[in-house]
């Protein structure tokens, strides 16, 4: 037509001249047009580029209603259903349809709802009817992580769980981070961290923060502060950072004494850790290459207020680098990380681990304890100490596989967690000595008496003979079970605990101080009345802040050597010191006073009962595992005898608190004088027959208990 660079396009019987360049641009745009929402099944599942999320994936029901553009005076179609399935209707009916058919049957993941979709997204084999082809409309879900479409809801839940088990929790569509105004600011021990509003629910957020674990964090900080006083500087690792609160407290209070590394495998958690570091005026040092990050410091730059933040799996960083202090606090059990932790930990370093799988450790899920720890357990009165010894046994086996032994410094089992802190002793000899302390426990299910099996591989003809009780002879059938393997050594180091108490006082950790005082008394098996900040007499004493701490010279000098293997002489002296301390170890396990109380009798006050046991010649202390527990080396029979002796009958007008003289009672040590004489009706009896008459009256009133005794 004489027009150069253009083509004639016929549209509606009209000749329209379109420039050739514009036509090519349109054709090119059509070729590069991205697939529609309904063609998402064609996308490669393994594609990693960001994409827009499907319209069926929403955070709130209101967001889903916005897609429908609800108006009272107009009919609107459902955005997730074709017109053949659901015709356009008014707003009230469409609201019920979206809520009941799509929202209630959705699958939830990290704050998003994957609603059921009825659009023609999923390729279904067509049905041929005559000359026409009808596409079958199948209900399905769109995966929030990959581009897969799943038909059944249960299959969709299993599909998401498989992603989580593989560590694939990052969605491959473009998401908008929550605005900073929605963050909550939490302050603990002069450290500020920002967390999401739902920080207390670990399934819904990446930044899990539990305020109930404050005591746990304070104990770990005290242990690190003690190690920092032995050698400087030390490299410490928080393998599961979450919000980074623990590592921030280490760096903020201990300053140049520590080099802190906070690790987490989740990208969102790492981002929040960086923001919390800047919030506390700490510089961030990254081990990854980031060209456009001006906030990080170089590898060669040294700064006392610098925290290294890493993003990798905990097992990977533990295999790659060596540390002096390692803390493991995963969600659940920590047995999957023990081999990596002991592989590169430095000599005389410290490994602390927090286990929150209390359902298995406290014998509520015994099959899980057998699976994770290889241990047979039952519910006992001392189940919390049993849990601590289970974890230490697993730690000992993992350290022994790396030719390392352990020295238990601290073991705490409370309502929400089990905390174990151990010192690492490198070498095959300490590893063998530690492995020998793993034994099985014989537990009587009738009287709750317990005893560790004797060392050796010889088979016992009658294992019941090892138990102090005679329940097997008086009861029919099998009365005892074998528990374990368990750690049979000491759970505490009194010298280390005293230094932890000093650090708690110095840094004003009020919640940890009462517990540490109880632990010191429990480690030395003394009552709080005899507690003193001065350690028992020893030739070598070190004074810190007015408190004397027992530190033998060879032991202290060996700790000052950083990263070097101890010589044979120091190893021998350490072994001698440990053998000398074994004789003064605290007794294993404890007895619950309520469990062994006598029906119809009022028990004495717990502190008075401790005095009675101590005056009878036994070592005794309270325990943090149980508020009504008594740790003592007295056999159960003697324990019950003393408890019965100083219990009072519950009837009105009974005797005051004091000893009850029973016929044929077992004599325990020296007799403690009574607080008051027994009141009897036969006051006319002679003075020498008064005690016999009192026993007769008591026997007549309570014949059952006297016979049982």
Automatic annotation (TrEMBL):
One of its GO terms (molecular function) is zinc ion binding. Its main location: nucleus. SUPFAM superfamilies: S-adenosyl-L-methionine-dependent methyltransferases. InterPro entries: SAM-dependent_MTases_sf (IPR029063), Trm1 (IPR002905), tRNA_met_Trm1_C (IPR042296), Znf_C2H2_type (IPR013087). Pfam families: TRM. It catalyses: guanosine(27) in tRNA(Tyr) + 2 S-adenosyl-L-methionine = N(2)-dimethylguanosine(27) in tRNA(Tyr) + 2 S-adenosyl-L-homocysteine + 2 H(+). It comes from the Eukaryota. Belongs to the class I-like SAM-binding methyltransferase superfamily. Trm1 family. This is tRNA (guanine(27)-N(2))-dimethyltransferase. It comes from Ptilonorhynchus violaceus.
């Amino acid at each position: 037509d004489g027009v150069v660079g253009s083509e004639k396009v016929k549209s509606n019987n009209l000749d329209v001249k379109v420039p050739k360049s514009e036509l090519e641009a349109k054709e090119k745009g059509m070729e590069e047009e991205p697939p529609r929402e309904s063609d998402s099944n064609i996308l490669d599942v393994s594609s990693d580029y960001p994409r827009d999320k499907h319209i069926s994936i929403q955070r709130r029901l209101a967001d889903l209603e916005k897609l429908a553009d609800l108006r009272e005076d107009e009919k609107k179609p459902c955005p997730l259903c074709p017109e053949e399935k659901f015709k356009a209707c008014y707003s009230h009916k469409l609201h019920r349809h979206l809520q009941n058919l799509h929202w209630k049957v959705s699958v939830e993941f990290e704050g998003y709802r994957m609603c059921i979709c009825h659009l023609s997204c999923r390729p279904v084999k067509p049905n041929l009817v005559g000359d026409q082809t009808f596409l079958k409309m199948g209900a399905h879900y769109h995966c929030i992580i990959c581009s897969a479409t799943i038909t059944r809801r249960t299959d969709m839940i299993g599909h998401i769980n498989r992603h989580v088990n593989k560590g694939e929790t990052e969605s491959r569509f473009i998401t908008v981070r929550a605005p900073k105004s929605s963050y909550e600011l939490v302050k603990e021990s002069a450290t500020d961290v920002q967390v999401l509003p739902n920080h207390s629910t670990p399934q819904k957020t990446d930044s899990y923060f539990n305020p109930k674990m404050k005591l746990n964090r304070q104990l770990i900080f005290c242990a690190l502060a003690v190690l920092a006083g032995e050698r400087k500087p030390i490299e410490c690792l928080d393998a599961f950072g979450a919000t980074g609160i623990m590592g921030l407290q280490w760096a903020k209070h201990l300053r140049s004494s520590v080099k802190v590394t906070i690790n987490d495998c989740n990208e969102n958690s790492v981002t929040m850790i960086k923001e919390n570091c800047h919030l506390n005026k700490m510089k961030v040092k990254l081990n990854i290459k980031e060209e456009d990050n001006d906030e990080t410091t170089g590898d060669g730059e040294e700064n006392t207020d610098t925290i290294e933040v890493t993003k990798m799996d905990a097992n990977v960083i533990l295999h790659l680098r060596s540390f002096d202090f390692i803390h493991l606090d995963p969600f659940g059990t920590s047995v999957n990380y023990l081999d990596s932790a002991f592989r590169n930990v430095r000599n005389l370093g410290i490994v602390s681990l927090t286990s929150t799988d209390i359902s298995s450790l406290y014998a509520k899920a015994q099959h899980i304890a057998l699976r994770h720890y290889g241990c047979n357990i039952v519910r006992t009165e001392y189940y919390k100490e049993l849990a601590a010894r289970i974890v230490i046994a697993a730690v000992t086996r993992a350290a022994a596989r790396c030719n390392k032994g352990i020295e238990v410094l601290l073991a705490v089992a409370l309502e929400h967690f089990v905390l174990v802190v151990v010192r690492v002793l490198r070498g095959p000899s300490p590893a063998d000595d530690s492995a020998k302390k793993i034994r099985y426990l014989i537990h009587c299910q009738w009287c709750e008496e317990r005893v560790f099996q004797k060392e050796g591989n010889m088979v016992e003809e009658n294992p019941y003979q090892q138990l102090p009780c005679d329940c097997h002879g008086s009861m029919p059938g099998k009365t005892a079970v074998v528990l374990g393997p368990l750690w049979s050594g000491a759970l505490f180091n009194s010298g280390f605990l005293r230094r932890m108490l000093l650090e708690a006082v110095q840094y004003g950790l009020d919640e940890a101080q009462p517990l540490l005082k109880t632990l010191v008394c429990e480690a030395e098996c003394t009552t709080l009345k005899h507690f003193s900040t001065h350690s028992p007499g020893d030739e070598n004493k070190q004074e810190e802040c007015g408190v004397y701490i027992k530190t033998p010279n060879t032991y202290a000098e060996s700790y000052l050597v950083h990263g070097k293997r101890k010589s044979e002489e120091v190893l021998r002296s350490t072994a001698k010191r440990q053998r000398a301390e074994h004789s003064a170890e605290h007794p294993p396990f404890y007895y619950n006073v309520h469990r062994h109380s006598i029906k119809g009798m009022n028990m004495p006050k717990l502190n008075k009962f401790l005095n009675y046991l101590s005056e009878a010649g036994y070592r005794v202390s309270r325990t943090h595992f149980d508020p009504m527990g008594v740790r003592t080396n007295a056999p159960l029979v003697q324990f019950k005898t003393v408890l019965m002796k100083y219990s009072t009958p519950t009837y009105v007008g009974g005797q005051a608190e004091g000893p009850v003289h029973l016929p044929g009672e077992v004599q325990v040590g020296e007799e403690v004088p009574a607080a008051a004489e027994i009141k009897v009706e036969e006051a006319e009896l002679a003075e020498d027959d008064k005690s016999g008459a009192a026993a007769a009256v008591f026997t007549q009133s309570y014949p059952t208990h006297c016979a049982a005794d």
